[in-house]
Every structure is written in C-alpha cells, then in structure tokens.
Amino acid sequence: xxxxxxxxxxxxxxxxxxxxxxxxxxxxxxxxxxxxxxxxxxxxxxxxxxxxxxxxxxxxxxxxxxxxxxxxxxxxxxxxxxxxxxxxxxxxxxxxxxxxxxxxxxxxxxxxxxxxxxxxxxxxxxxxxxxxxxxxxxxxxxxxxxxxxxxxxxxxxxxxxxxxxxxxxxxxxxxxxxxxxxxxxxxxxxxxxxxxxxxxxxxxxxxxxxxxxxxxxxxxxxxxxxxxxxxxxxxxxxxxxxxxxxxxxxxxxxxxxxxxxxxxxxxxxxxxxxxxxxxxxxxxxxxxxxxxxxxxxxxxxxxxxxxxxxxxxxxxxxxxxxxxxxxxxxxxxxxxxxxxxxxxxxxxxxxxxxxxxxxxxxxxxxxxxxxxxxxxxxxxxxxxxxxxxxxxxxxxxxxxxxxxxxxxxxxxxxxxxxxxxxxxxxxxxxxxxxxxxxxxxxxxxxxxxxxxxxxxxxxxxxxxxxxxxxxxxxxxxxxxxxxxxxxxxxxxxxxxxxxxxxxxxxxxxxxxxxxxxxxxxxxxxxxxxxxxxxxxxxxxxxx
Length: 543
Known about the structure:
globular
C-alpha cells in the first residue's frame, strides 16, 4: 500500500471528523450557559472564589470581584462541603507522596541544570569525575525534570483533583502509591545508569529499556484509580479536565512502550521514532495534564465557570487530531521521507487551532477579573503558565517552517523554546496547583504567604533572563552557522555572553525553587497542628 496515500487519507479523515464534531455541537462555541462548565461547582458555589493561599484581605477582594456572578438565594450546603472534604481526605496521602517526590526531583534537576549551564562557559568546573561531565550532567538534568519533577507534580495534582471532579472518594489509592514507588525506583536506577555511562543515546529516551519499562508500569498503576472511579462517579457529565487527564494517562504508557521496544527501531527509523516520542510526550502527556489543571484551578479561584465550554472541547479534540506527527519537523534536512517532513509542518501549523481555542477561552473567562491577579498567588502562576502555553505553541508552529528552522535548528534557541514550554507552561502550572491543593491536602494554611510572592518573582525574573539571553544567543549562533565565510568557532564565541546570562537566569530560578521547597517543608511540618476552628476557616466562605 502507498504510505503517502494512506497517511493523506488518515489526515483527511481526521479533518472530516473534526468538522463533524464541530457541526454536532448543540450550541454555539461562545455559549456561556452550557451546564458542563458548572460541573466543578456545587449548587450556589458560583460567585464564591476558592483560594487557599490567599490572606483574609485578599479573599475579600476576590469575593468582591466574583460577587456579580453569585446566584441569589443559593448557598453551598454543609453536606456538599463535607463531601468535598471527604474527597480531599481520600486522596490526601497519595497526592502528598507524589508532590513530595516532585519537590525532591525539582531540586535535583535544578542543581544538575545549573551546573550544566555553568560548564558551557566555565568548562574546567568539576572535571575530575566522569559523571560530572557536561554530557552526562545535562542528561541527568533532563531526565530528573522530565521523569521526576513534571510528571510527579502533574500526577499528584491529578490524583487530588479526580475525587473532586468525579464527586466520589478516591479508589485505588494504594495502587497509586505503589505506582509512585515503582516509577521513582525506575528513575533512581535510570539516573544511576546514565551517571556511570549506560545510555540508550536518544534524547528523552536515554534511560535503558531494561529500566525504563518501570515508568510504563508505574504510570499505568497511577492511572488505575481513575478507571476504577469512573464506574462509581457521582456526576452525570465528565468535566473537560477529566478528558485531558484520562487521555494523558492512556497516551503515556502507549508512547513509552512503543518507543522502548528493544530491537524494533534502527537507523533513520530510530531517529524518526525518537522525535515522534520526544514531541508526543510533551504534547500528549505534559500538555493535557497541565491544561486540565488550568481548566480546573482558574475557574475555581475566580468563582466563575469557564466562559465557553464548547471551546474547551474543541481544544481537546483538535489537540488529539493534530499533535501526533508534529515531531518530525526536528528532522528537517535529515535523510527521512519528504512527505513526512511536510506532514509534520502542516500539523504543526494546524496546532494553532487548539492553542487559539484554549487561549481565547482563558481570556474570556478572566475578562473582568484580571485585577484578581493582584490578590491571588495561585492565579498568578496559573495565568502565567497559560500565557506561556500560547507563546510557546505559536512559536513552535513558526519554528516548524523550513525558513525559520534553517536559522534556529541546532542552536540554543531550541533549548530556550523547550524551556518556554516545560518551565514557563508546565512548571508554573504545577507551582500554582501545589499552592492551591496542598493546604487542602494537609489541612493547614501556608505559614508564610510572603514566600509565595518571593518564589513567583524569583522564577519569573530568572525565567525572563534565561529565555531572552538564550533566544538572542541562539539566533546569532544560527546566522553565523549559515554563513559559509565564517569559521565554526565564531558561532561558539558569539554565544559566550548569552550563555553567562543563561546561568544568571538559571541561578535565580534555582533560588526560587529553594524557596518553594523550604515553604513545602514548613507547611508539612505544621500539618495536623491546627485546631478544629482553624480547619473550619479553610472551608470556602459562602453566604
């Protein structure tokens, strides 16, 4: 069978299915009255913000902004609040274990990343040990963040949100804990293998398959509670966050198992598979989990349902339709079929549809509530992450174009782009989610809210320095590489001041991570010491 014709037929079928889905929507895309958007709110809860990280004064300001959306004569009943607290208690321990692991891997990954950055302009730093060489240290950083910090944080938030979203206590919590232990055992063993020189040699897939299979097993165990709970859910409609989370929990084991099957992929096919996996794990695992978090936390903080529920569904299905083959644009100019490159470019550009749907929806939801960013710690992180998702996705679509790719490929610009997504979007959403969820998990207020602001401004300042310096250095590097009259060393020399700026930004981000981790330790130490009255004060305030 002609592979080009088969692929084209599949693409046309996906487009037809997309338009059939859009046509089948019962109401307009901008219809604000669809009941599915209110699934995450109890009766009478719309118009009453929930922000566990806010002070009393900040809560008052948030309430004033949300008041016009309140439903007169309705109030959240004690039974609903008790059910919410029971749901939180059922997921508290598994969620805490996952989040605690995430914090540990954040610190480990930050240390490895900062040392790697310093080595790019300080090559004689720590050269006595092979495992501290740039090649191994940079790989340790990538894997600690990609398989430690980000998935542990996102899965922890997902496990905590599921009982709330499905309105039923968590089922299979022990399976989730076992899955967490299996996953972390695989990560410790995998990082150890990389440190001593055993690597598969493919970016994002460096951990040997004999060890990496533990990620698939652990991920499936962590995802089983959702499958168990869906059968006993107390909601008639599955909120869009459940769609994103369920898809991500299914996609990750599938992606990883296919990518790591031993003896299956060779040569050019192996390179193609490498970037099929490398991009899909970003777009079909980290991205849907993060978007699911945004769709939950943003409406809850401002006490207002998402503006267009149908737009949220459009974003989900177009992400599923278009993301599968975008990774091949990393191989432009490589010895792979031209039709595959072209298909990847087309699908990369088509990704503008789900990105615009998501971004427009968040903007419409926040319309009239932008001043809430001054009063909500959680909202700052979540909104910042949502904006970075828009920027990094649109930038990625442009980078896939051959003319742009010719300049940016094989330069530090690509590294900046990767951090724009994995840090600016994913990590900032996880930070915001942790600040929302942990007080509910531990039944205790954040002891020092000022540290949350310090954390935010440190990481934002460091991130801005990091992205700007690395992007400029990468473009200058790419322009010199394209000039046949310039020696290669010119492309190295031009990046030196920008790499130093990268280290300054990385140091500020690492300092912010230390503040975050210290605050995490402080709230954990305080958990369980509040009186019953103080715990009651943590419940959402309603009329």
